[in-house]
Amino acid sequence: MTQQPTLQQALKQLRQLQKLNPTNIRLAGEAWSTEWQTLIAIMLSAQTRDVKTIEIATPLFKKYPTPQKLGKEKLEKIEQVIKSINYYKTKAKHIKETSQILSKINMPETINELTKLPGVGRKTANVFLSETGKAPAIGVDTHVFRISHKLGWAVSNNRDKVEEELKQLFPSKYWNEINTTLVKFGQTFGRSSKQEDEMLSKIIN
Length: 205
Description:
This protein is an all-alpha fold and 205 residues long. It has helices spanning 7-20, 35-44, 50-63, 67-72, 75-82, 88-102, 111-114, 122-132, 142-150, 159-169, 175-189, 193-204.
């Protein structure tokens, strides 16, 4: 097991990961014109590749540019638009219900408020908060979980506890960088476990 680095070492590793990441990768929650679209895109991205999510979300938002329009649409029609995405029936239900709620209220600003929305779990809420800059947050997905273990940043097998370990290691001003950095690295190099391990070994040493 890799020993947990000091903050200085961990920050150096974070910067090295950022230098290795290609600049042309767009994550599912990036570069939307409204916070509502950002949240819906992150909800759609669960268990789905970011490229596929963007490919589905773009025509969805063109057809339904506001939460009011998506919230009023028939479920079957939403399913038709997103049917090539994983778990599309469940996601269609959740994005319709969440849009209905968001058409009547201001966008939630805290993790507790966000996780009350249908289909919004802790990871989705954290990624939304960090993407929009509303609050310092760390979304722990498979890439963050895996890479933070390999670097020795975290040891727990529980995602919520990994989030806490990362928050203890890094000051809050760095939290919003962690998910984006590790996900982009994981998407770029993680398709080959051997390649990822070699890259991370160089970063550790």
